[in-house]
Design a protein that fits this description.
Blueprint lengths: L4 E4 L5 E9 L14 E4 L3 E9 L5 E4 L2 E5 L2 E4 L5 E6 L2 E5 L3 E4 L4 E4 L3
């Protein structure tokens, strides 16, 4: 069973604010939806989020991303914790990013 938030080819800007996200896996399409929150060719603003119990928190390809004031705990990873590929990203005031595993915790543009 897959459990993820996904924005694909969104016509308007998508915003996630003041949320607690926990226990997400992959999207229905694990090739293009590789994180708990996915953005494919979409503009996404995320602020004041608390993210826990997630192996791959964010995966974005195309579009624009804004990350503000987030608390992220990554139990273990073997690749990117936050993947921002082929897009513009602004990160402001990350409160805390914790990891007990291997991999990149911030942004890995492709």
């Amino acid at each position: 069973m897959f459990c993820a938030l996904t924005f694909t080819d969104a016509k308007d800007t998508c915003k996630l604010a003041y949320l607690e996200i926990s226990g997400t896996t992959l999207g229905d399409d694990p090739v293009n939806e590789r994180g708990g929150v996915n953005g494919n060719n979409s503009n996404v603003i995320m602020e004041h989020l608390t993210v826990t119990d997630v192996i791959y928190p964010f995966y974005f390809e195309g579009g624009n991303t804004v990350l503000r004031k987030m608390h992220i705990t990554i139990d273990h990873i073997c690749n990117d914790g936050i993947h921002i590929g082929q897009r513009w990203c602004m990160q402001k005031n990350p409160r805390r990013i914790n990891s007990t595993g291997w991999g990149n915790l911030l942004i890995s543009p492709t």
